[in-house]
Amino acid sequence: MGTYRICKDDVIGRYLVASKDIKPGEIVIQEPSLIQGPTQVTVPVCLGCGNVIQEKKFKPCLKCGWPVCSSICEKSPQHIPECQYTVAKGSKVTISTFGSIHPSYQCITVLRCLYQKQFLSDVWKKVDLLQSHCEERRTTSKYNKDRITIAQFILSFFKLKHIFTEEDILRVCGILTVNGHEVPLTNPSHVALYENTSMLEHNCSANCNKTFTNQGSVLIKAGTYIKKGDHLSICYTDPLWGTINRRHHLYESKFFWCSCKRCSDPTEFGTYFSAVRCQNSSCTGYALPPSFLNQSPNGKLPNWTCTKCESPISSYHVQEILDRIGQELHEMPKGNSKAAKEFVQAYEKYLHNNHYYLTDVKFALSQLIGHENELGLPGLGDEALEFKARLCKSVSALVKVLAPGETRIRGILMFELHATVAELGRRNPDPHQLSIVLQESRKILQEALDLLKNEPECLSEGKIYIQAQRNLKELETVLTNLHRTIDDSSL
């Protein structure tokens, strides 16, 4: 029996529901891509492996001229569509500038889709079922840009007017925009279409999460306990963005306004993740709009109101505050724990402690502390270690409430927490207390392993998983020796 079944609704379209109870961590979907290729905005990349082209380390494809890494990449099945279309037009492509955005590459993935339409009907039937939202896209500047820079370019440059229409190409552009998944397995990331994964609903508090195998297949895992009959969902946007930004991004890229439970609750499940402090100096409350669902396409909202004293604040003034703090965050030196601490201290006066700006910095800070000096965690004082531990615990707890299906962030935090707890424990001379603390560290580390399993080795989360496995073995050895010491001392 499979883990899901496909259903259809006049409003939602095709969607997936659990066909059985699914445990956290269980794989729901694993499937290879239907089509993959460069993103629309990219530097020149190898059209075989997808990685960035090094100016002094490439060769033009002997047939079409497009740059590739090697003879192996030149013969890759991925490269066949654009190679054949280029050869058919009668002249080779010449790419002479590298390291900066190159407009010629925005047509590649679209061409690969069109190739399926012309020659591989079985694959095209699956692609053709995906939503393109062409009608909604017609009113956007992106649609007109795609028409000029992609559709007209493909029809004239590749001489395909006798095979495809402008509408054919714009429909493919829409399918890629709405259904494309960014795949971070190459440098830079590429985009891919997947058949069943495209039917997963969006939810800002999703019950599933997405990762990839080393071979490029998408891997959808249950992040929470899912009951039979529940709709399966992933988050199409960043779950650690504020509600205004999440909803606006979804409207711009996926053409719908999200009204999930999280978006419908201004407090975001009591976390006040988007709340600012009341402007009344004598009040300790926080301001929020009556609803984020009244957001207009330009992002405007009704006035915000303090949840304690009910003082109003204009949405314009709130936006001014957020824009200023957002600019400070953008300009803040990266990889600097001192600057991160100062940011948090400065803007806790204006924002709720859980606010997304502060959470973003706290998450970064939890990873910076102990990684800025050669000695690592042993080079930190007890106060710094305890501060790091508090950060890991508070951010992890917040993520668990906001996005319970998100395992990657919590896995990283649990890994950092385990190391911090272990280092604090090693500073206790009492072997009995040390044993208790190291057992706690082992428990936290096991949670990190459970959260990060199946992460590909080429990504940072996969590397952390491998390190966590090593750490677990070392902890087991230390605990075994420690227990022997304790047993010997009691004789």
Could you describe the 3D structure shown?
- It is built from 16 helices and 16 strands.
- Helix 2 crosses helix 3.
- The model has no long low-confidence stretch (mean pLDDT 94).
Shape: globular
Kindly report the average pLDDT value.
94
Portion of residues within helices: 40-55%
> How large is the count of helical segments?
16
- Roughly what fraction of the amino acids lie in strands? 5-15%
Major sheet: 4 strands, antiparallel
Structural class: alpha+beta
- Separation of the first and last Cα atoms: 56 Å
- The strands making up the biggest β-sheet line up spatially as 13-14-15-16
Low-confidence stretches: none
Global Rg: 26 Å
The number of E-state strands comes to: 16
Helix/strand layout:
Elements: E1 4-9, E2 13-18, E3 27-31, E4 35-38, E5 59-60, E6 67-68, H1 71-74, H2 80-89, H3 108-119, H4 121-128, H5 134-137, H6 141-157, H7 166-179, E7 181-183, E8 190-193, E9 201-202, E10 208-212, E11 218-222, E12 233-234, H8 243-254, H9 261-264, E13 276-277, E14 286-288, E15 304-306, E16 312-313, H10 315-331, H11 337-347, H12 356-368, H13 382-402, H14 408-426, H15 431-452, H16 460-489
Parallel strand pairs: 9-12
Antiparallel strand pairs: 1-2, 3-11, 4-8, 5-6, 7-8, 10-11, 13-14, 14-15, 15-16
Short structural summary:
The chain starts with a strand and ends with a helix. It has helices at 71-74, 80-89, 108-119, 121-128, 134-137, 141-157, 166-179, 243-254, 261-264, 315-331, 337-347, 356-368, 382-402, 408-426, 431-452, 460-489, and strands at residues 4-9, 13-18, 27-31, 35-38, 59-60, 67-68, 181-183, 190-193, 201-202, 208-212, 218-222, 233-234, 276-277, 286-288, 304-306, 312-313.
